[in-house]
Amino acid sequence: MGGTPEPAGGTDATSALPASDASADEAAAAAASGDALVGQVLEGRYRITALIGAGGMGSVYRGEHLGIGKSVAVKVLHPRLGGSAEAGARFQREAFVGGRIGHPNCVAVSDFGVAADGAFYLVMELLQGESLGELIEREGRLPWRRALHVVRHVLRGLGHAHDHGVVHRDMKPDNIFLAHTEDDPDFAKILDFGIAKLVGEGGATITQAGITVGTPAYLSPEQAFGSELDGRSDLYSLSVVLYELLTGRTPFGDRDLLAMLTAHAVADVPPMAEVAPDAGVPAPVEALVRDGLAKTPAERIGSAAEYVTRIDELLGRVPTASGVWAAPPYTPAPGTLHAVVTATPAPGAGPGTLPAARRADQPGASGGGADRGGVARSARCTAAG
After folding, report:
1. Do both 147 and 224 map to the same domain?
2. Number of domains, the chain
3. Which of 342, 236, 352 is nearest to 298 (CA)?
4. What is the CATH number of the domain that holds 249?
5. Using one digit for the tens of pLDDT, what is the confidence trace for 2-41?
6. Within a 13 Å sphere around the CA of 42, how many CA atoms are in the beta-carbon half?
7. Residues taking part in catalysis
8. What is the pLDDT of residues 172-183, one digit of tens each?
9. Which helix (H) or strand (E) holds 32?
10. Cβ 326 vs Cβ 318: under 8 Å
């Protein structure tokens, strides 16, 4: 179940593109100019076969590893950002961290290189499915068991990353990909380690001390104000995601930027019964989310492993004498599997292909869409703390 899923009909998709402040017009231009790469071979190893999707920072292509004939996803940095030290550093960081982690619940990055025109590119596993953000936009909130099942996958990936000294710093629905595997249509994988922090690393980093990075609606209190952080910051952000999965909105997403950052630090989390009175979220499930949203790291759920254990208790999993979980993982009932999303394919992608990131010609592309709480969900915060 944890291996690299190969496309098996339906919609092909791969990693969502990093968010940026680029306009939809710029993303459309990226898609149009990206056609020139189709048919080319990068550094004699990867043949570009189709454009999957384009965003403000670059494009994602379907490719083939010529040596072994394997289908891969190739993310190429937009040419206009080729001279940006920060964009290049993010690409290199994503490649380094993705190769370092190596976990089934994190998208696998297998290579990093520079094309003939000087553009940076990443080679990743090709996945079939969609981002969690797309699922939320289509279906709204999820049944609590399904929501916990998805978050449990993410926690396994985060726990592995944290054990290897990596803090993601941008956990949000658009950075969680639901890969449709044979035995689990909700097999979640973490995307985009481009602004990840490596605990204990020396030398220059992508962001300066005292600068807030991440997506405002999902920031931990310590991250919102540029304080030192560890893996518990990711657990807060993921708890915001879980709150959104259960209620259909983020807890503080209906405020302006400064008010939102302040609310993360001092405001009470709105009761789920007030936000979504018909959601029927059990009290123990809400208590779990609130523990994940504690204002200080010391009061918060302490680790991804502890979070998983509490989810297992809520899902009725009971350890046997041998230590193996007796109950199977949550599986959606018949009729609740993902519907096939229809959209006009990206140029050159061919029929039946749909990008995981929004197409440039779709509403909300490249950070233009509104968050389910009224705030741009994909915009990253770079305000001084």
Report:
1. yes
2. 2
3. 236
4. 1.10.510.10
5. 343 333 333 444 444 433 334 455 445 545 554 688 999 9
6. 29
7. 170
8. 999 999 998 888
9. helix 24-34
10. yes
